[in-house]
Amino acid sequence: MAANTSIEWTETTWNPVTGCNKVSPGCKFCYAERMAKRLKAMRQPRYKDGFRVTLQHDIVDLPLTWKKPRLVFVNSMSDLFHESVPDEFIEACFETMNQADLHTFQILTKRIERASSLAARLTWTPNIWMGTSVENADYQHRAEALALIPALTRFLSVEPLLDSIPCLPVDGIDWVIVGGESGPGARPMEADWVRSIRDRCCDCAVPFFFKQWGGTQKKAAGRVLDGRTWDEMPKRYQEMIDGEKAAERLAATA
User: Fold this and answer.
1) Which of 61, 114, 208, 211 has its CA 20 to 30 A from that of 180?
2) pLDDT at 248
3) Buried b (16+ CB within 10 A) or exposed e, 193-232
4) How far apart are CA 63 and CA 14, in angstroms?
5) What's the rounded Cα separation, in Å, for the pair 47 and 241?
6) Are 90 and 118 in contact (CB under 8 A)?
7) What whole-number distance in Å separates Cα of residue 133 and Cα of residue 55?
8) How many domains, the chain?
9) For residue 219, what are the domain limits?
10) pLDDT value of residue 45
C-alpha cells in the first residue's frame, strides 16, 4: 500500500485509508474510484470492498521502515479526513508522520472543515504539508479554511480545474498545483483559466506547478504552458533540495 507513482508532484503514495465518496463536482470522474474497481476485479485483497472506506491498520506504521527520504502523497486512494475515518485513526497517522521526519508528507483533502476542527488535536511537524482541492470558484472557501490550519506548508490542488477562478485566495498558501481532468469523459479546461491562476501566483510570489492539460489522451496533451514547464515547489522544500544538491557537489569534489 505504498508505491512509486507517476503523479508529477510527488514520489511515493501511502494509503492507510482506501475508499471514498463524491462530495463536489471535481469528484465526478474520480481516478481513484476507477482504480479501486480495477483492483477489486483483479482480486487485490485490500480492495475486496471496492471503493468503500476501509482502514488499513497494518500499514499505519509503514513509513517508519523507509530508510531513504521520500516525498509522500498521503491517501491517493482516499481522504484522510473522510467522515468515516475515526479521529483516533487520524491521530495515529499523524503520530507516524511526526516520527518519520526523514520524509515529507503531503495530505490532500476535500473535507477541509473537518481538518480544521481537528487541527488543534494534531501535531503539525514541519514535514507535514496540508492541502485542499478547489475545482471552481464555488469551492474557493476551502482555500480560505486551509489558510487557518497551522501547517508550515499549505498547498492548493486546483485539479480538475473546471471553470475560471478569477480571484483564487492565495494568502497564507505556499504552493498551487493546477491540472486538467483526464480519463474517460474528461471535461475540457481552457488555457486562460490556467493563465489567470499562474499570473496570480506569480504576482503573489506563490510557487506554481502545472501538472497537465488532461483530456482522454493526457500524455499527448502534455504539460507545457506558454512554452515552458512549470515545476515550482514550495520555497522551503526547494531550498532544502538545493542545499542537498550543493552538499553532494561539494562532497564529489572533496
Assistant:
1) 114
2) 83
3) bbebbbebbeeeebbbbbbbbbbeebeebebebeeeebeb
4) 8
5) 36
6) yes
7) 22
8) 1
9) 2-253
10) 96
Kindly report, residue by residue over 164-217, the tens digit of the pLDDT.
Answer: 999 999 999 999 999 999 999 999 999 999 999 999 999 999 999 999 999 988
Output DSSP code: residue 62: G
Got the DSSP string for 142-211?
HHHHHTTS--SEEEEEE-S--S--TT---TT--EEEEE--BSTTPPP--HHHHHHHHHHHHHTT--EEEE
CATH number, residue 30? 3.20.20
Report the pLDDT averaged over residues 102-113: 98
Least confident of 123-137, 174-188, 220-234, 240-254: 240-254
71-74 vs 12-14, strand pairing mode: parallel
Residue 142 dihedral angles phi and psi, to the nearest 5°: -60, -40
Q: Per-residue pLDDT tens for 32-84? A: 999 999 999 999 999 999 999 999 999 999 999 999 999 999 999 999 999 99
Secondary structure of the chain: what % helix, strand, coil (to 5)? 35, 20, 45
Which residue has 480519463 as its cell numbers? 183
Owner of C-alpha cell 483526464? 182
The residue whose grid cell reads 500499514 is 59
- Residue 248: Cβ within 10 Å count: 9
Q: Residue 105 forms beta bridges with which residues?
A: 72, 128
